Amino acid sequence: MKRRKWLSGLVCMTMATSFLAGCTPSNGGDANNGGAPADPAATDAPTDAAAATGSVVGPENAEGTINLWAFTDEVPKMVDKFVETHPDFKYQIKSTIIATTDGAYQPALDQALQAGGEDAPDMYCAEAAFVLKYTQGDAWQYACPYADLGIDVDAELKAADIAQYTVDIGTNPDGQLVGLGYQATGGAFIYRRSIAKDVFGTDDPDKIAEIIGSGTQSWDKFFEAAETLKGKGYGIISGDGDLWHAVENSSDQGWIVDDKLVIDPKREAFLDLSKKLKDNGYHNDTQDWQDAWFADMKGEGEKQIFGFFGPAWLINYTLAPNCGGEKVGEGTYGDWAVCAPPVGFFWGGTWVLANKNSEKKEAVGQIIDWITLNTEEDGLQYMWANGTLNGEGGTKDCVASGTVMSKSDGSLEFLGGQNMFDAFVPANSYANGKNLTQYDESINQIWRDQVRQYTAGEKDRETAIADFKSTVADKLAIEAAE
């Protein structure tokens, strides 16, 4: 006998200010794996309360309660499935969901971890925009090594063929794995087949990959393609944000090195790439997550747009809902394909962690292992990849395990029948997880604001860079390296 009791209300608490420095969310163009962007207005963390919802699932005669904290209902729903498929599991799961909107989640989680006690999280989630804070940064001391949860880390990582970038991000300063995701968010180029045929005479992913410079680690051929597309009246991408995620996550260094702000040369070059896009009319000059960006997905923008850079979740949760149709022939549905990008990158993702102070480590380990490393057909990874988590015909997605994707069918009608795993499995191996910092969400917004002002002609290049450095120093108390 299982029960479900939905809860809603306020989680009232005083936030510990020691955790807040430099960690207030903002809209740097990053999104969680479901595709919802951070709130543009979220510049200050709350100081009194955070709205929360949640659920309790599990047997009536439970041996105890496992507290799960998350910022969407995605992981709680996965845990619901775990409980459903493991009738002998002896614990109830109490989920607390606090959205990242208005900067609510991190301070609430920080306070709960710091306070400890029976209400402290046993499991908690962190997205790419702030995960390093919890695996390697200010709050890394709370994360329990997977090995201490009873997980045979080395053997299971190898058996599951987990993308290395996710392992790097989830590894603490002592070299121990403390977090993994269930999705793989390596990026590819997602393009319109009809436009490819009109301009290049083919929509074959291998040929389009060659045309845009796949694997060259250069944007030269991409801009040659942009010029060709312009000659036919098309834009190559919707806005400079579509290029930013590829640039950001292919850089050699993150924003912070030895506690100083640095601008990696590849990220600095984004100033020039963005200006080249704008000056030559290669895009519709939209901003990601705004109405005009979504309009370009259904082909209703100023000019038709060839493609977008992103991972599989961008297809499933952003392009598909905004393509103007639900079957082939409606809007741009079915008119898409995926190919390898010029540079390897990833975008987004959610990591699952355990509290080292939890008294239920073995039980928590069972859940985390099922979500992140189990490669069997009754594991989360397989169901997620094949769209069977909630029955047949669900959304297929790229998962962390290459082993699972190798035995799964990633064919999508939305992609004209293409198996997306053929493009995304290699994309995951090319992604770099060593250029993140715990301040990325805030710094990205500051940087992209300055880039937009530069490309709009409101300031020159040197002023934009100087203003970026001074704003980071003012807001985050991080000085630029000499």
SSE diagram, text form:
Blueprint: E1 2-12, E2 49-59, E3 64-70, H1 74-85, E4 91-97, H2 105-115, E5 123-127, H3 131-135, H4 153-160, H5 164-169, E6 179-181, E7 188-192, H6 193-200, H7 205-211, H8 220-231, H9 240-248, E8 256-257, E9 260-261, H10 265-268, H11 270-279, H12 291-297, E10 307-310, H13 312-319, E11 336-339, E12 350-354, H14 361-372, H15 380-386, H16 402-406, H17 421-430, H18 440-455, H19 461-476
Parallel strand pairs: 3-4, 3-5
Antiparallel strand pairs: 1-2, 2-4, 5-12, 6-12, 7-10, 7-11, 8-9
Characterize the structure shown.
This protein has 482 residues and is α+β, with helices and mostly antiparallel strands. It has two domains: 2-184 and 348-406, Periplasmic binding protein-like II (D-Maltodextrin-Binding Protein, domain 2), CATH 3.40.190.10; 188-345 and 411-430, 3-Layer(aba) Sandwich (D-Maltodextrin-Binding Protein, domain 2). It has helices spanning 74-85, 105-115, 131-135, 153-160, 164-169, 193-200, 205-211, 220-231, 240-248, 265-268, 270-279, 291-297, 312-319, 361-372, 380-386, 402-406, 421-430, 440-455, 461-476; strands spanning 2-12, 49-59, 64-70, 91-97, 123-127, 179-181, 188-192, 256-257, 260-261, 307-310, 336-339, 350-354. The protein has a seven-stranded mixed β-sheet. Strands 10-7-11 form a three-stranded antiparallel β-sheet, with helices on both faces. The protein has a two-stranded antiparallel sheet with strand order 8-9. Helix 11 packs across helix 18 and helix 18 runs antiparallel to helix 19. Mean pLDDT is 87; it is low at 1-50.
